[in-house]
Amino acid sequence: MIAKTEIFDLPLEVISNERLSRSVNVIALRAPELAPRFKAGQFLEIKTSDSLFPLLRRPFSAHRVSDGTIEIMNKVVGVGTRALYDVEAGEKLQTLAPLGNAFGYDKTDFDLAILISGGIGVAPMAMLEDALRARGKEVLNIVGARTAEELVARHLSNVRLATDDGTAGFKGNVVELFEKLLPSLESKRLRAFACGPNPMLNALSKFCNARAIPCEVSIESTMGCGVGICYGCPIRVRDSSGKMRYELLCQYGSVVDAREIVFDE
Ligand SMILES: Cc1cc2nc3c(=O)[nH]c(=O)nc-3n(C[C@H](O)[C@H](O)[C@H](O)COP(=O)(O)OP(=O)(O)OC[C@H]3O[C@@H](n4cnc5c(N)ncnc54)[C@H](O)[C@@H]3O)c2cc1C
Question: What is the C-alpha separation between 91 and 198, in angstroms, rounded?
């Protein structure tokens, strides 16, 4: 699954910055060279400020791609994501892309794609849904967050919601909701595509593996350079014989087969 795409380092102009809430925004970047090369699941490494701090770029999934434009969805958690919340149209963001592998939307072993996202893990799902629908696949979105206020389901269709506190949709997490919906879905050939916090991806991977449901998880843990130089994003994977080894998330993923990934418990 190692990505073999040509990588560009370009100053991309901010076309717009739409603030969806007090902590989540969507930035549209003018990127005519990059947009046609992007596949759903791939990411960009963005320098969030012109100054030396923060020095390292930050990784963001492509949220949507169209007509020479790439959108990212940003959730404020620290200094870099705060800077991206505040950017204005006309500013330029130095960006390395496209990076990483893609979701397996071209696979032919499924008819119904279950897109399962938690929190800001919803970011890559709009582009993935577009790619799946263009290939005639049926799509069901299961979108979860801690509370109704944190739910984002922008540009997604056929959505079921889950919140930990029950303020919107199903009360519980996305894996529990998937379990509840599964009896009504099992007549179809399923493939799950997921993105969210690692505990959610861990629970989902175990759930799918136990039921032989093919599942791919896009992992958003801490990453440094994004190109395999800094060795700052090790993940553990196991082969079919159970033997474990380390890989770099930025080189091996960020999309990894649920049967391979080994999360820290
Ligand atoms: C492949 C990939 C794709 C991603 N896509 C998106 C996306 O589409 N939208 C989005 O909003 N975020 C995404 N992320 C996460 C995003 O890169 C981080 O939230 C960001 O790097 C944090 O930078 P910061 O400077 O704001 O935080 P910092 O100031 O560096 O850290 C603030 C706090 O956040 C924690 N933190 C930092 N990075 C992460 C992380 N990756 N996961 C959990 N906690 C973290 C730190 O430990 C610290 O507690 C993605 C990450 C990866 C690896």
Answer: 33
What gap in Å lies between CA 105 and CA 1, rounded to an integer? 14
Alpha carbon 152 to chain centroid, angstroms: 13
pLDDT tens for residues 194-241? 999 999 999 999 999 999 999 999 999 889 999 999 999 999 999 989
208 to 90, 203, 216, 260: CA distances (angstroms)? 44, 9, 10, 12
Give residue 4's pLDDT: 58
Ligand 1 centre to CA of 84 (Å) is 12
Task: Report the DSSP pairing between strands 58-61 and 69-75.
Answer: unpaired
Closest protein CA for atom 39 of ligand 1? 222
Alpha helix locations (H) across the chain? 79-85, 125-134, 174-181, 198-210, 249-252
Can you tell me whether residue 117 is helix, strand or coil?
Answer: strand
Domains of the chain: 8-99 (2.40.30.10)
User: Tokens 């279950």 — which residue?
Assistant: 114
Query: Quick check: CB of 49 below 6 Å from ligand 1?
Result: no
Paired with 115 in beta bridges are: 141, 193
Does ligand 1 have an atom closer than 6 angstroms to the CB of 152?
A: no
pLDDT on residue 50: 86
pLDDT at position 150, please? 94
71 Cβ inside 6 Å of ligand 1: no
Tell me how many helices (H) and strands (E) the chain has. 5, 17
* Low-confidence residues in the chain, pLDDT < 70: 1-5
Cis preceding linkage at 59, omega within 30: no
Torsion angle of the four alpha carbons 176, 180, 181, 184, in this order, in degrees rounded to the nearest 10: 150
Q: What is the pLDDT of residue 87?
A: 97
